[in-house]
From TrEMBL:
The organism's place on the tree of life at top rank: Bacteria
Enzyme Commission number(s): 1.14.11.55
SUPFAM superfamilies: Clavaminate synthase-like
Catalytic activity: L-ectoine + 2-oxoglutarate + O2 = 5-hydroxyectoine + succinate + CO2
NCBIfam families assigned: ectoine_ThpD (TIGR02408)
UniProt lineage: Bacteria, Bacillati, Actinomycetota, Actinomycetes, Mycobacteriales
Gene this chain is encoded by: ectD
Quaternary data: Homodimer.
UniProt protein name: Ectoine hydroxylase
Cofactor(s) required, per the database record: Fe(2+)
A Pfam match: PhyH
Primary role: Involved in the biosynthesis of 5-hydroxyectoine, called compatible solute, which helps organisms to survive extreme osmotic stress by acting as a highly soluble organic osmolyte. Catalyzes the 2-oxoglutarate-dependent selective hydroxylation of L-ectoine to yield (4S,5S)-5-hydroxyectoine.
Originating organism: Nocardia cerradoensis
């Protein structure tokens, strides 16, 4: 019997047949919330922080990530994900190791302090990336729970992780801004279908495995409703790893980009994948669990 087979899996997914939703037993808030913006995080599963960064800070980051997207050498790097149809840069992973500006940002107490409040422990960077959604041709992200993927393909034991999306451009209701189902973080939605080997090569451009059935999504939306993250550049969205979220395509002239930082508790470090044959590369799922200082 392998380690994976001997573990108790409380969030079974990627099954051969459909299985019912699982009520979450883990807390949403593990620590003590002191920031006023986070007061409803436990109930909603997300919080919006207006003016988290100043216009000058946003400009510095935006300039640096634009430089990365235009770098022809970096474009050949495996950490750079190219849009399936437009051939433009979709995402750059491990951006906190490529950009000195982002490296400084992840250690800023305004940033990492939010994660520590929710997770109740020291934290490390599980994943970082910059997402680009150009005007007219930016492709969206289908409805999904990040934890479902991180559990199945990375071996994250429990949903004791949070993501922070910092807007580098204005987020309008019409340019592909992120949508969420408030409260859906309290229910784990198993997905059907075996994880293909090296699934990340396809899923980072267009995810088809690890997404709920449409009838399940319809029931969730009917139960929880849909909220949307809109706001000026410098605002941010902090959200639970298990909340259902997604974004539509951007067919407007207004490009959208954001820095996406995932903080995981040092008490929730990765094991072997629960529903995949092999670990994903460390630029997608870090196995350096050193706490941020």
């Amino acid at each position: 019997m392998t380690l994976a087979e001997s573990r108790i899996d409380r969030y079974r997914t990627r099954t051969a047949v459909a299985v019912p939703p699982v009520e979450r037993t883990d807390p949403t808030v593990w620590g003590t919330v002191t920031s006023p913006e986070l007061q409803n995080f436990d109930a909603d599963g997300y919080a919006i922080i207006d003016e988290l960064l100043t216009p000058m800070e946003v400009a510095d980051i935006a300039t640096d990530i634009d430089r990365l997207a235009a770098d022809p050498v970096l474009r050949a790097d495996e950490r750079v994900i190219i849009e399936k149809k437009s051939n433009s840069v979709r995402s750059i992973f491990e951006v906190h190791k490529i950009s000195a500006v982002v490296a400084e940002l992840v250690r800023d107490e305004r940033i990492v302090g939010l994660a520590r409040q929710i997770l109740g422990s020291e934290v490390y960077i599980h994943q970082s990336r910059v997402n680009y959604m150009p005007g007219f041709e930016g492709a969206g992200f289908y409805w999904h729970s990040d934890f479902e993927t991180w559990h199945a393909e990375d071996g994250m034991p429990s949903p004791r992780a949070v993501s922070l999306s910092i807007a580098l451009t204005d987020n309008y209701p019409f340019n592909g801004s992120l949508m969420l189902l408030p409260g859906s973080h309290r229910q784990f939605m198993p997905c059907q279908g075996e994880t293909p080997d090296e699934h990340y090569r396809e899923s980072l451009r267009e995810q088809q495995i690890g997404v709920p059935a449409q009838e399940d999504l319809a029931q969730l939306a009917d139960k929880y409703g849909i909220a949307q993250f809109t706001g000026a550049r410098g605002s941010a969205l902090l959200f639970d790893s298990n909340i259902m979220h997604g974004s539509s395509n951007n067919i407007t002239p207004f490009a959208r980009s954001n820095v996406f930082l995932v903080f995981n508790s040092v008490e929730n470090t990765l094991e072997e994948p629960y529903s995949a044959l092999h670990q994903r590369p460390t630029y997608i799922a870090s196995r350096d669990f050193t706490p941020l200082r």
